[in-house]
Specification:
This protein is an alpha/beta fold. The protein has three domains: 3-127, NAD(P)-binding Rossmann-like Domain (Rossmann fold, 3-Layer(aba) Sandwich); 138-300, 2-Layer Sandwich (Dihydrodipicolinate Reductase, domain 2); 340-419, 2-Layer Sandwich (Alpha-Beta Plaits). 35% of the residues lie in helices and 28% in strands. Strands 7, 9, 10, 11, 12, 13, 15, 16, 17, 18 and 19 form an eleven-stranded mixed sheet that branches. α1 (13-33) packs across α12 (303-319), α3 packs parallel to α5 (112-122) and α7 (160-172) crosses α8. The longest helix is centred in the first third of the chain and has 21 residues, at 13-33. It is elongated, with a radius of gyration of 24 Å. It starts with a strand and ends with a strand. 43% of the residues are buried. The model has no long low-confidence stretch (mean pLDDT 94).
Length: 422
Amino acid sequence: MERIAIGFLGCGNIGSAVYRLLEERGSEIEINEGVAFEVKKILVRDVRRSRGLNVPEGVFTDDPQEVVNDPDISIILEFMGGEQPAADYVIRALRGGKTVVTANKMALSLHWKEMLSAARSGGAGLYFEASVCGAVPVIRAMSSSLQANRISSVMGIINGTTNYILSRMSREGAPYDAVLADAQRLGLAEPDPTADVEGYDAAYKLSILAMLAFHRYVSVGSIYREGITEVTPLDVQCGQELGLTLKLLAVAKESDGKIQLRVHPTFVPDDHPLASVSDAFNAVYIDGHACGETMFYGRGAGPMPTASALVSDLICAGKAKRHELPAVEDEDCPLAKDWSCEYFVRMRAVDEPGVLALIAGEFARYGISISSMIQKGERDESGYVQLIFLTHKAREHAVRQALKGMDSATIAGVSMIRVEGR
């Protein structure tokens, strides 16, 4: 059996996990799948550094040309992360006819058109199962198993760090800063957690999922993004008392020929399948006209779950007689500039006669119907009380205008969180 020469771009935690997985499972993959792989070159920053791997002499290199331009290497696995120089290396490899397997959601989502064009011109394959939700096979399902469906919505918990933080806040009532510090100590959050907690990571992944769902190009910049840094234990607690669980949700929905694209903290009912997804686990909930509601669930991050998806893609690439590229048009998705959902609104209001009527009147002015209202606790020393409102479905712009128009002399500390899945 001919051995397929492959190259690595990077060899950090994920690259090392892939190498170990190929060592551990290589002979079984050869028997079960009929393909064998030889790692010919591995790009690293420091060839002298020990990585605890049984790598033959001369395989490590600090010259990217030895990987990207080697005529014997037919498949390249990229684990560098970040936009550059990873995106440049991938595009050059694809243009040169080398198939690429990557977990790099940032480079992929920001350079989607260039990568697809390079793959077409080079006759190469582009595989990216590991770019969203690690070991969860949602990319392959959307690309092949669900292609008979017209998908109307995709909702996902696709960032494990934020799900861990919100899960801890829900269970323990702990403040955001304390749980973030714990996540950093455990290695679940980066020293600079911005990409996770401000929703950038989820936005990169949502752009990929939305393109596969709706077969049109989705730029990351078109996605409304809001992180979890302003979430308070009081918001989480009030939601729980109303039978709601808080998640950072990535949402893509088609309505009236336009696509909603948004990442933000979202309440879902406690009995919704996404509500039970805790800690660093991921899940994607898809609604198709033929398959109905379907959820994919599992470990969305970590070296070995990610390596599992990368090696799966590698096997598919090695066995392929012809590489199938994603069926995504270059034309941008038609975007919805407004959307409807239910809303959770918490505010501090002066405890005086007529204030509640003013609030209700401002909501009514913008066509917002109130589903329920709760006063939480007694008035504080400043004469304010906590009011919690749940609305019926309302337009995003209308809710924002209503809250903006409320008298700041009587209303303070407004928190607004969207509600999905009811």
